[in-house]
Amino acid sequence: MKKIIYIFIALSVASAVFYSCKKNPDYKIISTPVALDASPISDVGCLGTGTSTVAIKGTMLAGKTYTVCGNLLVDVKDTLIIQEGVTINFTGNYGLGVKGTLICLGTKDKPNLITYAGVTKTDQIGADPSKDPAFAGKWTGIIGGPTCKLMVIKWTHIEFGGGAPSDAIAALSKSPYPVFFQNPGGVFVLEDSWLYGSVDDPFRILGGKIAVMRNTFEKCGYTGGEAMNAKSGTIGDFAYNLCIGIATNGPKLSNSGAAVGVPGSNVRMYNNTIINCGYRRAAAGRGGSINYEEGAGGLAYNNLIVNCKFGLRVVQNPIADTANLRYGYNFYYADSIAVASQNYPSLSVSTAFPKAPLTDIPSPDSYLPAGWKAGDVYTAPQSVIGINNPRFVNGPVPLPAGVKLKDIATVGSYNFALLPTSPCIGKGYTGFAPRKDVPIDSKFGATEITPPGRDIGAYQSDRSGNQHF
User: Fold this and answer.
1) Cα(236)–Cα(145) distance, rounded to whole angstroms?
2) pLDDT, tens digit, for every residue of 108-166?
3) 168: part of which helix (H) or strand (E)?
4) Please, which residues have CB within 8 angstroms of residue 319's CB and are 6 or more apart in sequence?
5) How far apart are CA 149 and CA 128, in angstroms?
6) C-alpha dihedral sign at 202, 164, 118, 88
7) Cis upstream peptide for 452 (omega within 30°)
8) In angstroms, what is the C-alpha Rg of the chain?
9) What does the pLDDT look like over 1-17, one tens digit per residue?
10) Is the peptide bond before 251 cis (omega within 30 degrees of 0)?
11) What predicted TM-score, i.e. pTM, was given to this entire model?
12) Which of 348, 364, 345 is nearest to 356 (CA)?
């Protein structure tokens, strides 16, 4: 007889917000127990048939390799557990749909791998993006349905996803994302993981409580896509993430599509390192580092923004939730006048913040023209080019000769930790707290909501923060 273990997880509602939010009706989540089926899943043969969707539940066992030959679906009352050191090889454009619960528990010593079998990465400088398997969508993705109340992914590599959904997966989402979550009453945790390659966003959030901590996002989005695209009443924390070579932005937050009674989107984006983003974006005037858009609030502090197409944007039309948005202590580095002249973007920027924050580095009053207002066009002086080298242990700063910014889209052999002489050390702002909207639990929540760091960026000199050295 199958042994069912019931774990009660309190999905508590965190009502405290750093700067008071818009008044909303009481937002209550009443969660049902998560039923864990301890039945082992065999690693012999194929999972799925290739022609129709097959139900899956139980436990993928530590160290095993599983081959997926068709769409898989975790039903509403079921749970799929993935233990440490598991490899899942998709053999076609199939996906994992989740109506119930997904718990993926890789570890630092034994991370999980979810990928497409037999694909070789093409990360050479100057490689043709149209021929890059990173943007091909070789398998569909992990697609959470509206009834998925809990999705936890820890220490997991997710590669080559983003293919068009089919069969029962298409009923959950017609849009292709390697990871998708869409329950405004649910909890989503992504921590210490790696997302490599995607056709569009590597993961999209349509509402819910989130903790996205200490991850690496590489080469995501072909001609558009953000490291995180969150909408529809998403609240939580996005911190200590490394975003490199993203088509558009690192994180983007909007409140479009939010249901009545759901709190407005409000995410604290702090201590992220965002490098060389915005250069595959097909549409002009968008993308590069951090975006707050329609009705979205939160805060953005201690972010290290290096050679991105645009600095932090607060969109004017439709306007972000500027009453509940604060930012500063962000560190900019630029290798060219074109890049430095968009540290404070001249396009689609809210005039609710008429002046650049003087806590940013370099101080904007040292090079912005007298009388500058948000959205004004300006040309940065030559004196700002190449200053404030963040002094990574090993990074593409300054930009190597003959290399274009769009060509550096992966970590490769770089190490984005800070040298002891880095000007980012000790310059972070710690006078705020994370939102902490999700439960803390080694399996069924966030392992840790890392508080703001004294050093700017994702890597801290005390070895806290991002652990992908």
Assistant:
1) 20
2) 999 999 999 999 999 998 889 999 999 999 999 999 999 999 999 999 999 999 999 99
3) helix 167-172
4) 294, 295, 350, 352
5) 40
6) positive
7) no
8) 21
9) 333 333 333 333 333 33
10) no
11) 0.92
12) 364
